[in-house]
Amino acid sequence: MTFLINIFFWLLSGLLKYQSSTEQSTPPSSPLFPCPNCGSHHTIKNGSIHNGKPKRQCKECGRQFVINPTNKTVSDETKQLID
Prior knowledge:
The chain is α+β, with helices and mostly antiparallel strands. The protein has a single domain (2-68), classed as N-terminal domain of TfIIb (Single Sheet), CATH 2.20.25. Helix content is 37%, strand content 17%. A 3-stranded antiparallel beta sheet has the order 1-2-3, with no helix packed on it. The longest helix is centred in the first third of the chain and has 24 residues, at 2-25.
């Protein structure tokens, strides 16, 4: 009887060790950022822009984009300075 109890606890401890090791090896869930061009969720980090906002790149179509960009229109005066 004691032998069976020892086997039971040995199996239980092995199961708990296995369960804790698999929980640690799973990567944390990362938020998905869909591509604005093709809608794919297969995007990767791709550096950052000049103000520190992270860039993403779509692995399907290759489009690079920024999440929540702060688009500002270029004034006519600035356009004249550029030309």
